[in-house]
Design goal:
Its cofactor is Mg(2+). Helices cover 18% and strands 30% of the residues. It contains eight helices and 29 strands. The longest helix has 19 residues.
């Protein structure tokens, strides 16, 4: 069987970064910058007031904290006023936060330190020169590199770009992923179940995992176990995705539609397709049957159909490769070491991923639910995966165990 590490490398080699694209600011949120960003102008653009108050010359109100000084208010300057003003000696201009400072002013006195009048104002504090003035360029100097390639576009980064008058950024685009479930037994929620039918859940679950990882979901179609239908559905989305993820149809039984469609048994594959998919057994539990390859140049990752196997396989193989292709930080889940709170067993020769509940305060982890791959309830409430090495078959309470933090 292929090792987990080997299959991780296979998947990582398949999923490549998309060509950088220039997009609007709202589209850039959460993506990674492909280029450095240099400031086209300085911030602040002009000297402006940091307070609502009065612009004046500091030397005109020396000693005002002990002996208040009255000055005539010559102008009213709201934010957004665009005409150039000059402050005459011995006068004040009422000014709002962000409004341009008049030439000649050397300080701003907050309105709280005055009587707030608009004709003649009483100044009750003696400011130092430069007090409550934001100088042009004190935040950003034009030409300075303010954002770096490889940096995630956060709300603060968007705010800075917008403040600099930039309408777009060059980023590494999201991976576009087609998530496809297979199985004749699958029906949509809201449909009455017939004997032998179950509600489709993998596409919903895996699509959410793709989005949580930073990708974009193209669609979530479902196919029966008929090769012709599977092929038709897949061909209907040709060229729309950078990655295809399927679930189900990759095991060793009959009606393995994904295997059958991609030369897994009967030599058939979607008409006009090129490339191929390699189906392997990976030494892990859950998630042993796996597949990966290229179809018409598009990477395809085929996951097992049991829901826990599908999601654990996504976490182990797809999520880190997907995030790495988009340049996102921390492609891997955080790894922790914790004290095992209960005994466990693991199959020899396989790396086991057990659902667990991690208590960060106590530094302990408890296995959660049975290890079988159909127990989705337990995975839904777990906050970690315990990683048990291939050569470990038993662990006792009190031992140190490695885990993947899913919280």
């Amino acid at each position: 069987m292929r090792t987990v590490s080997e299959h991780q490398r296979v998947v990582a080699d398949l999923i490549a970064a998309r060509t950088a694209a220039t997009v609007g600011l709202t589209e850039a949120e959460g993506l990674v910058l492909a280029d450095d960003v240099a400031a086209p102008l300085s911030l602040p653009v002009f000297d402006n007031s940091a307070m609502d108050g009065y612009a004046l010359r500091a030397e005109d109100v020396t000693g005002a904290d002990k002996n208040p000084v009255k000055l005539p208010v010559a102008e009213d300057i709201p934010a957004g006023r665009t005409d150039a003003l000059t402050l005459a000696p011995g006068t004040a201009h009422r000014i709002m936060t962000g409004a341009p400072l008049p030439a000649g002013a050397t300080a701003v006195v907050p309105v709280e330190a005055t009587d707030a009048r608009t004709d003649t104002v009483e100044i009750r504090s003696a400011p130092k020169a430069g007090q409550h003035i934001r100088r042009a360029g004190e935040d950003v100097t034009a030409g300075t590199t303010v954002l770096r390639a490889g940096q995630v576009v956060t709300p603060a980064a968007l705010g800075l770009a917008a403040a600099l008058g930039l309408g777009s950024l060059t980023v590494r685009p999201r991976q576009r992923v087609l998530v496809m479930s297979t199985g004749t037994e699958l029906v949509s929620a809201g449909t009455d179940l017939k004997p032998g039918q179950i509600y489709e859940s993998n596409a919903i679950m895996l699509a959410a995992a793709v989005r949580e990882a930073g990708g974009e979901v193209v669609a979530t179609p479902t196919s029966s176990d008929d090769v012709a239908q599977f092929s038709a559905v897949l061909e209907g989305y040709a060229g729309q995705a950078d990655l295809i993820i399927t679930s189900g149809g990759v095991s060793a039984g009959a009606y393995e539609v994904v295997k059958d469609a991609f030369d897994g048994g009967d030599g058939r594959r979607p008409s006009g397709s090129s490339g191929g998919v390699e189906f392997v057994k990976v030494a892990m539990q859950p998630g042993m049957p796996q597949g990966a390859g290229l179809i018409n140049g598009c990477p395809i990752i085929t996951l097992p159909g049991n829901p826990v196997s599908a999601l654990v396989s996504f976490e182990v193989f797809v999520r880190p490769a997907l995030r790495a292709a988009m340049g996102l930080p921390h492609p891997h889940r955080p790894r922790r070491t914790a004290v095992l709170a209960d005994d466990l067993t693991s199959p020899p020769g396989k790396r086991q991923f057990r659902r667990g509940v991690y208590d960060a305060a106590a530094g302990t982890v408890t296995t959660y639910g049975p290890p079988a791959s159909h127990h989705l309830r337990w995975l839904a409430s777990a906050n970690c995966l315990l990683e048990i090495a291939e050569d470990v078959t038993e662990m006792a309470a009190g031992e140190q165990v490695q885990l993947w933090d899913l919280s």
